[in-house]
Amino acid sequence: MDWEPNERDAWVEDAQRWISRINGVLQSKIDLDENGDVTGVHVVAGMHREPRHIVRDVESLLKARLDLEVYYKKIGVVQVLDNGAASTQSDAPDESSPTALPGLETAPPPSVETIEADPLRDDERVPASPAVTPAPRDDAQPAVLLTEEIPPRLVCNGVGTMASNESVRAEVLLQAGEVEARGTCEGPNAHASDLTLVARAALQAISELLEEPVLLHLNEVRQEQAGGRSLILVAVDLVEGRHTETLFGTCAAEHNRQQAVVYSVLDALNRRLRMYALKTAPRRTLEATG
C-alpha cells in the first residue's frame, strides 16, 4: 500500500529534511497516529555527538520551525559507524524501492562485519547456498550501536536554615556521582519564607552541578493538604532561549518540610535534567616518588 501524504501530514516531509540537516544526523523519520499526532521521531546519527544533544536539537527545531511540542522521550536516536555512504544521499527517494517513503532520505545501510564461527569438521560441514552468501567487500566497516550510560541522579546530602530576627539563611547540599555542590539563599524572616529560600538554594546547587548553564527559576512553592496529608508543591521554570517549560514536583511533608522542599525540587527536575551533562570529578593522578 502506497503512502500518500495529505494536507494534514504535508509538514512531515519538510520536518524530516530539516532534522536530517542537524549536525551528526544521517537519516530521520517521523511517525504519526491516525489523528496526525506525533507518536515517534526516529533518528539515525553518527558517533561524534552525544545522543542527548541531538535529541535537544530535534526538539528545539520542531518547536522553532513548526511550533510543535514533542516530548523528548518520543525522540529516539541510534548511533552507527558512518562509512561515508550517507554523504551520497539523494534528496529524492527511490520510488522503485518498496520501502521508500516521501520525505525519508534513503542511503545504503552501514556495513556490518561478519564474524565466522569455529570451522566444522569436514563431515559436519553444510554447504552454503550461493543465493544467501553475501559478496565480500573490501571496504566493509562494522556498524556500531552505542548505549549511553545513565547519568547519576541528584541526591540531597543536607539542608538547613539559620534564622535571626530580620533574616533567614537557607543552605542545601546536593551530590551527583562524586561531585557535591552547595547552594545558599538569604531573605527576610517572613511567614513561610523558609520554603522559598530552601527551594532557591536547591536550584542554585543544581545549577552548580550542571556542565552547561541552564536557567532555572522558582515559579512557586507552597504547602497544601491532600488526602489527609501535608504536601509540598513546587513549580520550576526551565528556560531555554525563548522557550520556557514549567515542571512540577511534590513530596510529603510529614517529617521535615524543608527537606521535603528539596525533594520536591528534585522530583520536578531529575528526569528532565538527564538531557544535560553533569560535572564529573577530576581524575586523580599519582605523583612519582623518588
Structure characterization notes:
There is one protein chain. The chain is an alpha+beta fold and 290 residues long. It is 19% helix and 29% strand. The chain is built from four helices and nine strands; from the N terminus they run αββαββββαβββα. The chain has helices spanning 11-19, 51-66, 193-209, 257-269; strands spanning 25-32, 38-45, 75-79, 155-163, 167-176, 179-188, 215-226, 229-240, 243-252. It has a three-stranded mixed beta sheet with strand order 1-2-3, with helices on one face. The protein has a three-stranded antiparallel beta sheet with strand order 4-5-6. Helix 3 packs across helix 4. It starts with 10 loop residues before the first helix and ends in a 21-residue tail after the last helix. 23% of the residues are buried.
